[in-house]
Specification:
mainly alpha, elongated, single chain, 12 helices
Length: 248
Amino acid sequence: MQVSNNIYTNYNQIANTTKPQKTEESTFASMLNSSENIKEEESGLFLKFMDQYNAFDSLSEKDRKHFKEILKDDKITMAEMDSLSYEQAEKFEYYAYPPSTLPTHELNKAPIVMKPNQVSTMLFATRTTNDRAFNEALYKTAREINNDDHRSTLFSEVQTNLSQVHFGFEVLSSFNAGAKQKDLWNEDVQIMNINFDNFLNDVISLHEKALSNPKTHPAVIKQHEERLDGYNIILKHFNNIKSEPKYV
């Protein structure tokens, strides 16, 4: 996963951003509450492009207004992401990018929506697997980890490990010479049959055993520690989410 040093990235990229201040969140919330429907002359290039295809027509009035308010300046900020519930973020992921059903020549004309890498990872998290609780845990993990390198490394590791389980390979750390991986396509995600409690426990155990083994090479200890820290964050959120009424 390539990380950019830019503050904002286009929709083909997954920069470092800090947790927004309450004043920034309040400003956006106030703006949203007081705004009317986005007028044509106020729309940015991306909204005008999307409106050609009536892309927002199927949304509720509340979500349509909210999503258009976020996208009208052709960028997405962390404060704007924080204004969304997870359920809204799941839907917003579809509207933050040009419709994939468009012909290639139309997609190539789509304007760029700028966003921090952290936002891109949060959006990606909503569709990483076919388990909603696990995806929400990934989403909250992406929001918690502000460091681009750490977040990118963790999500790349998760993709590797998910691929290993899905395709029946041995679950190994990505930096293990024997690690196997295949790309996960949308079709693979839709048919995943993974017990995510077992998945998290197995991967965490893998790193814990490596760290407790005196034969583990010193050169990879830090890598095991970083992966373990990241997976423990995912596990924390996963356990908390599963206890919520909507998942019980």
